[in-house]
Design goal:
Elements: H1 14-17, E1 28-29, E2 34-35, H2 56-68, H3 76-88, E3 97-98, H4 99-106, H5 113-122, E4 127-129, E5 136-139, H6 143-156, H7 167-172
Antiparallel strand pairs: 1-2, 3-5, 4-5
Helix pairs in contact: 2-3
C-alpha cells in the first residue's frame, strides 16, 4: 500500500522528528514523500517497537549457562551464536538493512558483510549484525551512506542490463 503525499509524522511524536532521535532519518523529500535516492514514493509501515529488544544482563547470563551446560544443548553452537549476536546487536538502532535486498534493488551481487562493516566503521559509523537475518546489518549510518557504499561496490563488481529509468538506474545515477 502506498501513502498519499500529505502523509507525515504526527506532531505528537516530537522525539521521532528531532535531530537527536535514535531512529535513522529516511532519505525522503519532505514535500513529496519521495525517496531522494530513487524518486519512488515511500510506503509507510508500522507501528514498530523502537526500544531495546534484549536485556544485556540476561543475555550474558544465558551465554554463561549455555557454555557451562553445553552437553544439554544439542544445538549448542546455534544457541550460543544467536545469543552472542543478540548481545552484540546495536540496541539503539531499531531497523536493519538486508544486504540481499539492497543488492537485488541494484541487480548486483551481494557485497560481503565484512566489506560493509569496514566501510561503515571507517566512515565513523557503528555497525552490528542482527539476530533477525544472518545477512543483514544494523547501523546508525543514514541511508545516503549505505547507498554510497553500494554504488562503490558496483564500481568494482559492475552490473549490466540496467533498464533506463528503473530504481537501480536512478540510484546508480546519484553522485556518491
Amino acid at each position: 500500500t502506498s501513502t498519499s503525499s500529505s502523509t507525515s509524522l504526527p506532531s505528537s511524536l516530537p522525539s521521532l522528528q528531532s535531530s537527536e532521535s535514535l531512529l535513522p532519518t529516511a532519505d525522503m523529500n519532505d514535500n513529496t514523500n519521495k525517496c531522494l535516492q530513487c524518486s519512488d514514493e515511500f510506503h509507510i509501515g508500522g507501528p514498530i517497537w523502537n526500544g531495546p529488544l534484549f536485556e544485556t544482563k540476561y543475555l550474558k547470563s544465558a551465554i554463561s549457562v549455555v557454555n557451562k551446560n553445553r552437553l544439554y544443548f544439542p544445538q549448542y553452537r546455534k544457541v550460543l551464536g544467536l545469543l552472542t549476536v543478540s548481545r552484540e546487536e546495536l540496541i539503539d538502532v531499531p531497523l536493519y538493512y538486508s544486504l540481499p535486498s539492497l543488492a537485488a534493488k541494484l541487480r548486483c551481487q551481494n557485497p560481503p558483510a565484512m566489506l560493509i562493516k569496514h566501510c561503515l566503521i571507517h566512515a565513523g559509523y557503528r555497525y552490528s549484525q542482527t539476530h533477525c537475518l544472518s545477512d543483514s546489518i544494523k547501523t546508525n549510518a543514514p541511508p545516503q551512506v549505505i547507498w554510497d557504499i553500494m554504488r562503490e561496490w558496483i564500481r568494482y563488481i559492475p552490473v549490466s542490463n540496467i533498464k533506463r529509468d528503473s530504481v537501480a538506474s536512478r540510484i546508480l545515477s546519484q553522485p556518491s
